[in-house]
Amino acid sequence: MSTPGLSYVPNNPQSPWQMYLQQVDRVAPHLGHLQRWVETLKRCKRVLAVDIPINKDDGTVAHFEGFRAQHNLSRGPGKGGVRFHPDVTIDEVMALSAWMTVKNAALNLPYGGAKGGVRVDPKALTRGELERLTRRYTSEIGLIIGPDKDIPAPDVNTNDQIMAWMMDTYSMNVGATATGVVTGKPIALGGSLGRREATGRGVYIAARETARAMGFDISGARVVVQGFGNVRGIAAKLFRAAGAVVVGLQDANGSVVNEAGIDVDAALDYVALGGKLTEFKGATQITEGEFWAIKSDIFVPAALENQLTEARAKTISTRLVVEGANGPTTPAADDILHDRNIIVVPDVIANAGGVTVSYFEWVQDFSSFFWTEAEINDRLERIMVEALKAVVAASEKHKVSLRTAAFIIACTRVLAARELRGLYP
Ligand code: GLU
Q1: pLDDT value for 2
Q2: Which residue out of 199, 305, 356, 384 has the highest number of ligand 1 atoms within 8 Å of its CB and is therefore the one to mutate?
Q3: Which member of 45, 79, 115, 185 is catalytic?
Q4: Would you say the CATH fold of 197-350 matches that of 44-179?
Q5: Pocket (CB within 6 angstroms of ligand 1)
Q6: What is the pLDDT of residue 352?
């Protein structure tokens, strides 16, 4: 296997970067004269790896590994979240940064793509240790982030408190309060109304619009949601509020089913109070295999990468997959779903609600003028609906999947900017 470098080509089939490279190969034939620039997409512009030493509460010193990858900055500053997870690798962060390039361009947000991560299990740290880890990581990547350079945000296992620590650390280092250096902050620190709910809301809008285009209504649709974070909870609640029947849920603890519909609000309250999803009275515990076979109209993978594998794609019983997570479906699984006429709304559109409201937050911070929640949700709705329409139209025009269509729109924008800017020197 080649060692990770900027033009890294892994041969591990589980590699997210390998998945992304295959997705680029699928879009290349549709790029016309811009194909000349396609290699730009196959490497990151810049990847920073940092050592993060922290003082532990027990008096020892622990070291963690952190990364920030900037995949492409042709259309604007880098933008993308930071995840804290024991499985973070440079390969994964590179892929996630590239998917941010595609996502930001597909939504026409004025950003390039970036992503960060720290290889750590945050649940094993005390609050003080987590704060010191966050601050040291921010200080180490401070060389390349900034309100007009690269703007981090929450991702898996990071939240508004972590963004507040990142904002404070960066501000202390530059000697001025810089609210625009991160998004997903608490409202009291220049955060935006609606940001916390935005990714889940976007997933719901993507599902509702695509279901309508396929000829079925969200009301009465059977929905299964996989995931353990913020996205799953908000999306599941919005599905239920729209009259959909949430029949299956899964989190890190296990899977549950209720053919008559799960009271999602009650289930999430139960988990929020420390209960286990599998012990929630309003549903029955099932195995992993049974979970992936639940009969549904809409399936939302909102956990991590590599969930919808080839084997699961053969047995999954649904009409529409809406990717709440980044990279949940492997390219081989994509082909099987396509052959089985199961539509997939790709991550780069389906979960773009989060970064869209991050963009609103950044704009509000720059102008120090804040919008109402209704204004934010209206603008989010408009941007998501328009982006989806364009992707559906491109998929019909080029006779390709929604994923390749989203890549055609996005990569054309990125490479057109690359060409117009030209190479320096
Ligand atoms: N982490 C989120 C994503 O994957 C949001 C990124 C952001 O708001 O910058 O899209």
Answers
A1: 61
A2: 199
A3: 115
A4: yes
A5: 79-81, 153, 155, 183, 326, 351, 354-355, 358
A6: 97
Q: What pLDDT, on a 0 to 100 scale, did the predictor assign at position 1?
A: 46
Q: What is the pLDDT of residues 170-217, one digit of tens each?
A: 999 999 999 999 999 999 999 999 999 999 999 999 999 999 999 999
- The CA 115 to ligand 1 mean position distance, Å, reads 8
Give the confidence band of 145 by pLDDT, cuts at 50, 70, 90. Answer: very high
CATH fold of 197-350, please? Rossmann fold (3.40.50)
Cα-atom radius of gyration of the chain, to the nearest Å? 21
Report helix, strand or coil for 213. Answer: helix
Q: Is 49 helix (H, G, I), strand (E, B) or coil?
A: strand
CA of 220 relative to ligand 1 center, distance in Å: 30
Per domain, the residue ranges of the chain are: 44-179, 197-350
Pairing, β 284-286 against β 254-257: antiparallel
Q: Which fold has domain 44-179?
A: Rossmann fold (3.40.50)
Length of the chain in residues, anyone?
425
Closest-lying ligand 1 atom to the alpha carbon of residue 83: 1
Give me the mean pLDDT over the 113-125 stretch.
98
The CA-atom distances, in angstroms, between 233 and each of 30, 83, 143, 194, 318 are: 37, 18, 35, 14, 20
pLDDT at 408: 98
Is there a catalytic annotation at residue 281?
A: no
Mean pLDDT on 291-300? 97
